[in-house]
Specification:
170 residues, mainly alpha, Cytochrome Bc1 Complex, Chain D, domain 2, 7 helices, elongated
Amino acid sequence: MNVEMATDSHSDSAMRGMAATVVFVAMLLAALSIWTAIPLSWIYIGSKVSHTQFPSNMPYLVVAVGIVVALVVTMTGLGVFHATRNRIRHAPGSLSGKQLFTQYCDRCHGVDLKGDANFPSVIAREVPLAELTTLLREPKGIMPRFPDLDAIDVQRLCDYLAERRHAAAR
């Protein structure tokens, strides 16, 4: 039974990795199109709108509006791709507290969890689970919101912070 579970877990992880790679490639192509395909396509379309060698402002307006709309749509798509990739890579409950801290928190609060002048220490005091949940859902100041984290993740993160706080107190 354990061998079957390990095999299922490994194949599930491999499938998530493959899906995340496909989404990443789509994101890369969309990002490259922002600088190449979108402007060039709209310049071509603008050149077809005018039938004279000395066009009025209409072709320029078509190109400008087309590029802006295409960029907004592409950037929105990139945001959706990014969220999808995060959901694929980070299935709920699949990361340990340490991995969650590394992925979401250590950039600001430091690898040692002590923070700095701009970011508070996360081990200076005990943070109850309810308070941590609220802080991650409705942050204060410059802290970003973390809607990806489910209850299992928040519990693991809280446990990790408690472990590190106790280890630092020794």
